[in-house]
Amino acid sequence: MPKQRVFYSVLNMGLGHASRSLPLIREFVHRKWEVLIGSNGRAYDFLRNELPDLKFVKTPDYAISYSKRGNLFFKLLAQAPRVIRKIIEERHFCRQMADDFLPDLIFS
Question: CATH number, domain at 31?
Fold first, then answer.
């Protein structure tokens, strides 16, 4: 029987998502799943360091910046067109990855 495959995507908004994902990813490996990890930025670097034998792909980066002072609403509103483009890019990326890797499970 062929190995089951999982595409595990991790947000890059600090290392919290990556550090909490680590035991889950290790459990997939323990259960002999083929794991492909998608991430970017610090989360990508952290996971790549912790799991050097696994396959990785860089996912589209939203690169949202937050206001240190002033009105956060307007700062985020100004970024909305770029975020929408990134959502479209991410959807295309996920479809392409699914066609290429053929995962049994997508964990995001």
Answer: 3.40.50.2000
- The helix or strand, by DSSP H or E, that contains position 30, with its residue range, turns out to be helix 16-30
Number of domains in the chain: 1
Give the mean pLDDT per block of 10 residues along the chain (108 residues).
93 90 98 97 96 96 79 87 92 93 94
Q: Which residues of 86-102 are buried (b: 16+ CB within 10 A; e: fewer)?
A: beeebeebbeebeeebe
SS3 label, residue 60: coil
Entry pTM: 0.86
> Where in the sequence is the domain holding 42, given as residue range(s)?
5-107
